Task: inverse folding
């Protein structure tokens, strides 16, 4: 068998393996879905935009946080950003608590989990609670409904 036949066979084999690989489902980074809101929040933390990430938070009844409340969240969001920045999402699950309430579990790099509580207001979803769950350790609340 000549070298060209060997290279051709190897190329066909590699192309066949690539075409058989599973396609990933992508979730759009949009505020119109609960999972999209969680991923959008993660993207803002990855970019270091903690003040913009704080604007996604709301009170338990869905009203946006006041500027002072968002400012007070900045240290916690900067701390969280240092931990989860650059970690790839490995698992995403949404649980329904009612027509306007959802829980989103976002696992990052198999070891870190963010648990979002979201409220549907108008046409978008707002984060009303956020917990950081390190692997095999108790949850650390970043924003809990009792904070408001």
Result:
């Amino acid at each position: 068998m000549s070298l060209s036949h060997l290279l051709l066979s190897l190329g066909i084999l590699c192309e066949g393996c690539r075409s058989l690989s599973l396609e990933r489902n992508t979730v759009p980074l949009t505020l119109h879905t609960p999972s999209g809101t969680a991923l959008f929040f993660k993207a803002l933390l990855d970019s270091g935009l903690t003040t913009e990430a704080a604007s996604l938070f709301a009170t338990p009844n869905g009203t946006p946080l006041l500027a002072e409340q968002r400012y007070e969240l900045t240290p916690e969001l900067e701390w969280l950003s240092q931990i989860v920045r650059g970690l790839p999402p490995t698992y995403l699950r949404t649980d329904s608590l009612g027509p306007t309430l959802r829980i989103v579990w976002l696992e990052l790099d198999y070891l870190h989990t963010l648990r979002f509580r979201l409220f549907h207001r108008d046409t978008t979803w707002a984060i009303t609670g956020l917990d950081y769950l390190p692997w095999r350790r108790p949850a650390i609340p970043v924003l809990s409904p009792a904070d408001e």
In short: The radius of gyration is 20 Å. The first strand starts at residue 89 and ends at 96. The chain has one domain: 29-147.
